[in-house]
Inverse folding.
């Protein structure tokens, strides 16, 4: 975006986000919902295939997940909700209609706080509703003919649709919104919300208007983004495109545009001659749902501590820096592990625990790939807690502790056990060090000579010899003192 | 020995248990008769001889083991709208010719559990849309009382085969009168249960909020046993209601003494044939003579709006329910179109019959943006009024009595080109589906040699009251014993 357009026009952005829920079964039948990597059409039954006479049965787990999401995002939960049929013909829609929610969804309003460039702001939500996913069409061309294959595994999976108000003003804000939303979904453990796997899908409505103008500009719907970054780039491209058009006095057309990842541009998709008429009507096969106040209260009590609250608490309770707190609250399980570690190491060692997490542990996780969490490894909070306790009590040296962590990541063994099994406990016993120190003096006459000649650095060499002999377990201070005592005594 | 196929189901059941004959023998004789009759009636789309004989042998084993219920070993026919595992289920549509379901619908499963012997799939109006069984891709069914007349519809095949003594029992579905009207036109008993009483799982859907599966029989006792076998809550159908299923013969001893009968004048207006009216009036006198309290002061003004309400709601639901038949996944498919859209359009254009297409278009229109409030929403509001009107009437009455159909069986071809005349057949039955109450049609007279039916409407989930009244009426009259002429 050029500085000029930035000052001239205000972009107004609303998002429609689809999130696949991580339930055991599908939305309206008993099929196993986890179909990722499964053979095509292996997770299907007469209900999700839309065979004649088959009837939907509501998945309560999906309803509960949606209500949890609504509560976490500060939504109002109406006491009455219903499902509707959304009618449109398409080969990937097994019944010729999609069971969705039209005018009485589970969740209304709501808000999510985001942070962009250190500034916090609120993005308001319109609604959250529950619906079923469609099948997948796989287009093929074998050189002789082109054809389409239908994979029904996805059909009938529970899909939560969240609609924001036109409340964002840059691609960066949209990016931050999606990232924060995904974090909340994962904290709730109701969805993985991976955009690259189709677990989260996002369409953006983008319009611009001169600053100060009340009325919204004509909006363009942008589709086909498969990462947070592509959402941001698509929006930025679209703002730039619309700004240029407005500068040139051209009319912005209300249309649907597709984002092309390779070029970073949006292109007009075949514009529909008329607005689609989905002919919504209440789903006669499903009675309306009454959500009792007690149900809502029970669910509210089940809500975990959410990322923003935890971040603030980590800063005050453990004296962490905002950066540390952010890393430690990125995932719920990492934060849980941190607190488990602090519990073992002792509250006074919270900072060292945090250092381990944000330092060596993070290095191990990064080595495993972008989104690895501690839960994906053999190491737990208990490991880190024991490790910090060992260092704090001088039982191991910092150098040894790093080795112990490597072993722990490899084997999953607990640090205490690793240290004992490998004899890594730091030697503070003066007698044992004394013996090795005398050997080192005897074996290194050159260094002894240097020391006596006033080269203080030679003591470092001798300490290194002692450490090598003792496989790093010697307390370095004790070793140096012992060496000096012998050298000075012999000289005197 | 020869088996008397004119017996009722409970008479057969007693004979089977007494060892008079086996279910296999009964089934073989039944199959022979329905195959022979079908040359005249065309009541069946599919005969299920192999399945029937296997079930008959299983039933004989159960009877021998002393594990027999009232339906064990008894032949039953089912409307070809009910999914049957491994057996083609067509809904009388070219669209579904050759379609073989991989599951049984719940009611068929319950019939099998009860040991009933399913002998065939009966003819109907395509997707249950019609009142004459003429709108079938497999040809019209004929009325056994007069082969040039319709059996009514849409469950015409199920009614005709019971009336002709082909089978003692059958199942139909009733969305606007599709059990009661053919029962009336064929001179047998037909019952539409309360909405939510019987599972719709596996029943090819027409209008989801209106339809129920129900029994055809020759007397109330048989209907009670068949209803008892299929009724009850089903986890696969969220619209079923967990009300306990009673013994539907529980009110058979009660008689008619003190039964409070509302006779709403609104159901006796223009369009009702004089002969039919006369039969109904005589039936009312018979009931009064048995101690029933007749009240002619009940007005049901909103019920007169039921027909237009029905022709908004039913086609609207149908337009969505039938959207899945696009030729892509199963059934009739045009595969040489210019595009996927073209093939879907051509499959539907050629696969559906005229009446089905008419209703899809009606429903699509009624749900369209700009018309939804004026049609669908208004219809739902009137529906609520009709429900309340029935509730009010039932606060002070046990049953509402009306004619089932304005006329006796009409001639084949007489109304098939006049949709509105055809729709008027269901004038008295449709309000009941709109309200959701149960209702029964029972034979109550003859006119021009053709049967007349009377409808008794009851409170929700009080099918026992209707069956008890029908049974008591059958004790003092013999209209239900009248048989059509034997088929050649």
């Amino acid at each position: 975006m050029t500085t000029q357009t930035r000052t001239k026009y205000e972009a107004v952005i609303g998002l429609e986000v689809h999130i696949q829920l991580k339930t055991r079964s599908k939305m309206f039948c008993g099929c196993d919902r986890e179909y990722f990597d499964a053979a095509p059409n292996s997770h299907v039954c007469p209900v999700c295939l839309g065979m004649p006479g088959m009837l939907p049965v509501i998945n309560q787990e999906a309803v509960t997940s949606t209500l949890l999401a609504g509560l976490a995002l500060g939504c109002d939960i109406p006491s009455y909700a219903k499902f509707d049929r959304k009618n449109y013909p398409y080969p990937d829609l097994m019944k010729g209609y999609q069971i969705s929610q039209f005018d009485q969804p589970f969740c209304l309003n709501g808000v999510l706080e985001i942070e962009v460039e250190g500034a916090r702001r609120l993005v308001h939500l319109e609604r959250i509703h529950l619906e079923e996913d469609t099948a997948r069409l796989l287009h093929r061309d074998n050189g002789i003919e082109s054809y389409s294959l239908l994979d029904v595994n996805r059909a009938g999976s529970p899909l939560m649709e969240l609609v924001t108000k036109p409340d964002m003003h840059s691609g960066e804000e949209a990016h931050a919104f999606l990232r924060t939303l995904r974090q909340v979904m994962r904290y709730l453990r109701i969805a993985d919300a991976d955009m690259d796997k189709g677990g989260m899908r996002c369409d953006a409505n983008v319009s611009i208007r001169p600053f100060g103008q009340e009325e919204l500009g004509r909006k363009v719907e942008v589709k086909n983004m498969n990462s947070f970054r592509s959402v941001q780039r698509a929006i930025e491209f679209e703002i730039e495109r619309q700004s240029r058009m407005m500068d040139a006095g051209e009319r912005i057309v209300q249309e649907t545009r597709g984002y092309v990842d390779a070029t970073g541009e949006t292109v007009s998709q075949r514009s529909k001659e008329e607005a689609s008429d989905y002919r919504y009507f209440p789903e006669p096969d499903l009675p309306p749902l009454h959500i009792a106040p007690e149900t809502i209260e029970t669910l509210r009590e089940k809500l975990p501590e959410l990322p923003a609250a935890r971040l603030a608490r980590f800063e005050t309770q453990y004296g962490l820096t905002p950066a540390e707190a952010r890393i430690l609250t990125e995932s719920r399980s990492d934060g849980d592990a941190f607190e488990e570690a602090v519990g073992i190491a002792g509250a006074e060692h919270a900072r060292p625990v945090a250092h381990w997490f944000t330092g060596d542990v993070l290095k191990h996780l990064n080595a495993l790939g972008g989104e690895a969490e501690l839960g994906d490894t053999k190491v737990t909070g208990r490991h880190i807690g024991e490790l910090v306790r060992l260092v704090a009590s001088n039982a191991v040296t910092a150098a040894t502790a790093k080795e112990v962590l490597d072993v722990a990541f490899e084997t999953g063994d607990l640090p205490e056990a690793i240290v004992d099994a490998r004899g890594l406990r730091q030697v503070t016993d003066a007698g044992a060090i004394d013996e090795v120190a005398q050997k080192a003096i005897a074996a290194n006459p050159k260094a002894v000579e240097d020391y006596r000649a006033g080269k203080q650095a030679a003591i470092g060499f001798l300490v290194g010899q002692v450490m090598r002999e003792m496989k790093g377990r010697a307390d370095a201070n004790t070793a140096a003192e012992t060496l000096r005592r012998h050298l000075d005594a012999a000289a005197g | 020995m020869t088996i008397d196929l004119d017996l009722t189901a409970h008479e057969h059941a007693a004979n089977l248990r007494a060892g008079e004959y086996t279910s296999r023998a009964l089934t073989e004789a039944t199959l022979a008769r329905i195959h022979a009759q079908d040359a005249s009636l065309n009541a069946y789309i599919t005969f299920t001889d192999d399945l029937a004989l296997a079930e008959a042998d299983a039933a004989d084993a159960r009877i021998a083991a002393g594990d027999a219920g009232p339906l064990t070993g008894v032949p039953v026919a089912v409307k070809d709208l009910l999914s049957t595992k491994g057996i083609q289920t067509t809904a009388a549509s070219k669209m579904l010719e050759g379609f073989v379901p991989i599951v049984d619908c719940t009611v068929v499963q319950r019939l099998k559990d009860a040991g009933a012997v399913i002998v065939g799939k009966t003819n109907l109006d395509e997707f249950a849309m019609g009142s004459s069984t003429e709108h079938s891709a497999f040809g019209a069914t004929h009325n056994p009382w007069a082969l040039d007349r319709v059996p009514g519809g849409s469950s015409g095949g199920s009614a005709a085969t019971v009336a002709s003594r082909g089978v003692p029992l059958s199942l139909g579905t009733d969305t606007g009168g599709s059990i009661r009207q053919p029962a009336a036109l064929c001179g047998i008993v037909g019952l539409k249960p309360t909405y939510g009483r019987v599972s719709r799982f596996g029943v090819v859907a027409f209008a989801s909020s209106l339809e129920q599966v129900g029994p055809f029989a020759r007397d109330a006792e048989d209907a009670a046993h068949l209803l008892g076998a299929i009724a009850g809550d089903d986890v696969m159908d969220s619209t079923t209601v967990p009300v306990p299923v009673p013994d539907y013969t529980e009110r058979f001893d009660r008689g008619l003494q003190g039964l409070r009968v509302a006779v709403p004048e609104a159901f006796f207006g223009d369009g009702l044939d004089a002969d039919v009216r006369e039969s109904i009036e005589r039936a009312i006198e018979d009931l009064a003579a048995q101690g029933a309290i007749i009240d002619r002061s009940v007005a049901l003004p909103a019920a007169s709006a039921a027909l237009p309400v029905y022709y908004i709601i039913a086609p609207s639901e149908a337009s969505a329910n039938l959207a899945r038949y696009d030729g892509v996944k199963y059934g009739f498919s045009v595969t040489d179109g210019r595009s996927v859209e073209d093939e879907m359009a051509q499959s539907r254009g050629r696969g559906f019959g005229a009446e089905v297409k008419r209703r899809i278009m009606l429903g699509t229109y009624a749900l369209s943006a700009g018309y939804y409030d004026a049609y669908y929403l208004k219809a739902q509001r009137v529906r609520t009024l009709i429900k309340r009107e029935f509730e009010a009437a039932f606060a002070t009455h046990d049953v509402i009595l009306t004619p089932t159909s304005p006329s006796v069986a009409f001639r084949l071809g007489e109304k098939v080109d006049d949709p509105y005349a055809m729709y008027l057949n269901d004038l008295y039955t449709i309000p009941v589906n709109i309200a959701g109450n149960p209702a029964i049609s029972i034979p109550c007279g003859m006119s021009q040699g053709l049967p007349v039916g009377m409808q008794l409407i009851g409170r929700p989930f009080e099918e026992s009251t209707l069956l008890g009244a029908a049974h008591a009426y059958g004790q003092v009259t013999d209209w239900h014993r009248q048989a059509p002429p034997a088929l050649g």
